[in-house]
Structures are given as C-alpha cells and as structure tokens.
Amino acid sequence: MVSTDTGEAPDVAPTSIDSLILPTASHNFSRTLSSLKQSRLSIQNRLTSIYEDSQFVQNVSDSQNLPLVANERCGSWYIPTQKKMGSAYFKSTDGHQGQWKFSLRRLNFQVLDIIEKFDGCIIVDSTRSGKSMPDALSKTVPIWCAIMNRLLFPGKAESHLLHTPPSVVGQSEHSQIGARLDGFLDNLKGLDLDVDGLREKLHRPLRVEWVTQASPSYNCLRNPAYHSVICCTASRQEASSGTWTDGYIQGAGDDSEGWSSGLTPAAFWQNSLLWLSGSQEQSEIAELLTKSNAQESMLPSTSQPTAIYPSNSKWPLFIGRLKAKETSFSIDLDGIITCDEFVSYTSPEATKNVHSPPFLLLESQTGKLGSRTLRNQLPRLKPFVEKIALQTQHPRLLFTCSTGRDLSVGVALTVLCLYFDNDGMFNGAPSPAPITKDYIRRRLSWIVASKHDANPARATLQSVNAFLMERPR
User: Fold this and answer.
1) Which of 87, 200, 333, 436 has its CA 20 to 30 A from that of 303?
2) Which pLDDT value is given to residue 177?
3) Are strands 306-308 and 227-233 parallel, antiparallel or unpaired?
C-alpha cells in the first residue's frame, strides 16, 4: 500500500458563509444588512403597513356591523379615530404559556357597556412576525369572556366553557387554562364587586370568535343567544425570516415607543394623507412630527375627571389629569391633591366661584422616580384629609397627576384604604382594620371598575403598600 500522507494538514472545506468572506467584506456585508433592515423598518413603511391593515379592520367592522374597540396600545394604530368606539386593556402576558391569568387590575368592564349597546364588538390587536395571532386575542380575551359568563350568568352552564382558536391553542394548553377558571372566578368574587350592577350591563352571555386576514370569510357565525366578541388580528402573517420585497411590516404598530418618535395614533390619523404620501425626506418627517405633537399639545390639557364610587357609596371621589398650565375643574370639590414637581394652581376664586377648595401638592417627579419618592410624600395626606373631615361627612376629593393614571391612582388608593370602610363610607380617622395586600387589592378594584385606564406602576403600588403596612397614626 502506498501512503498518500504528505505530512501537511488536509484542506478543510468552508463550513459557513462567513468563512468565504474576507473580514473587511464580512463587516461591510453586516453593515449593509443592518442598513437594509433599518430602512425597511422606517416610519414610512410602518405607517403604510398600518394603513393597509386598517382597511382590513374596517372591512370586518362593516361586514359584521359591529363597533371597533382597540386593545391598547397597539390596537389604536389600526383604527381611524372617528371609528374607534372605545379601548380595552387585555395583556398578552396574561395569555403566555404557563402564565395564564385573569387580571384583577384590568377588569375591562367598560367593554360590557359597548357589547350590550351594539350586541357585540370587535377587539383589534396585532402581533409581530412569526405568529398568526397575539396571545391577548387567542387566550386573554377568551379567559375574560368565560369568567364574565360564569360571574354574570351562573345558571347558564353551557356558556361557562372556555373557547380558544384550535389552530393557535393546542388541546393540552386549552385544558390547562380551563382547569384554572374556577380559581380565577374565586379571585374576582373576592373583590366584593357590585355584581348585580354588572348584570344590568349585560343581558346575554358572551361568545368569542376570531378573524384574521387568512380567514376564508369575514362573516363569523353569530349565535343569537350570545353577544359576539370578535377578536380581529389586524396584520397578515409573514414568515419569521421576513420577505423584504414590498416593505410590509407585520405588527407595525407594536412597541411604538421604540419607533414613533412621539407620534401618536390620533396624530397619525389626523394627518394620514401627509404621512402616507411617501415624499418626505428625513428633515420633513421630523418637521411633520413636530407639527403633529404641537397640534396635540394645543388640545385641552385637562379633561373632566372620572368619578370613583367606593363600593356601593353614592358619594364619589375623582381622579383626573392636571397640568401646570390648566388646573381648574368644573365640579364642586372639598379638596384637591395633586402629584407633580410644580403646579401653578388656579383657584376657583379667580374664576369667581364661591368655593375655593384646599389644595395639597405632593411633590414628585414623573415616571419611576416619582413612584419611588411618593412614599415620602404620603404621610402629608393625614393632616390634610382629617382637616377636611371636620367640615363634611362626605368629602369630594380630586386626585390628579400628569397622566391621571399612575400617581394619582396610588394616592387615591391610599385614602380609600385609610379612611373608607368596606361599604365605601368615609371615616374621619384612619380605619382600625388590618391592612393586607388583599385589602388593598379590593379597594384598587373600586378604582379600576370605574376608571378603566387606571394603570399605577409597580413602583407606585410598592410605595403605597409599604406606607400602608406601617399603619400611619
């Protein structure tokens, strides 16, 4: 046998594309791909994709003769402002594998009013490439419908079953979710809500259906014994690797904080023809963004606050927004408590109102820093509230912050825990009842049952919990 070993290392075949490209060429190739991806994900492409998908959404609404409800925040991008009937807050994370949940902080009772009035609704959301449907629509909404049916129609057992799209949710996952429904219902009942009042909102059970751009027909089979809740996935499904030929972006409205540069759905739909013209240079896009933001800033900085009725009480508290330039409200108040760095308060006396309510500023920044510093400001509530209690048995208090959804909710929650009993009646001194997390959760439900966009940050709730657990005297 003749040996062919020459003593030299054998040639090795290339194992990857990178090994065929020189380092400099590889670096340039990577930069080119990054540039192409960035160009494809431009604001122009996103808004064009959103507009195309919105046509599908409106066609579904027209064919079903049902109103459109945006699952915030993504859903609002796909619905022209004048056609948006309302908002819902169903989180995809509450439908993630193994993390299924019925949210006690996002009860979405406002959707019941729309459903009863129009015999149903269409909830609009979207998801990024690789999925045909967001978990919010395939699992979170179905869980909510099943729990609402169990709570409001205990005698109609056939409506208590969980319905999920079989093409998206496997049988095993479906069964695991179904096994948790009794626990979800018990948790909801533990909030001691006005169930009789909720039953007045709805006279038939809910039945969930799904429609996507891949559906053979927009016409869902609606059962007259049920109100239809149609979950509409706005975007068409693209392969996970993406095809870059037409610039289409699946779920273009998702995570808008990262790409919108401050543009909002309302501002987009107000100037949609300009945005979709496709002729803007980078400087023109920046200028249009500035104009859109300026138009929104010219809108009234305050809106009428939301009335919050503790338990079954007839005497409400109020939660709203309050900005430095506009701080007057057209309701009769016994006190205003606001969270802000600085507020130039316009006393009702200046507008010739007879009554000038006391005003308490809890100095706090916006965002997470404000949530953390709130803990040090909360002790100032006690002398303020108790002084007002000497004047009236049913104080009408207004709680405000820059958004009307975060810090103001935390402060209102603190007052509800300290000064209101389980029947929603005001006491002039802190309640002697032990304050636990369940106690706090029940009073938070009083707020979210009326103020559907209330969304206190985790840090805000942590500050409230820490303060209340110490039982201030």
Assistant:
1) 200
2) 98
3) unpaired
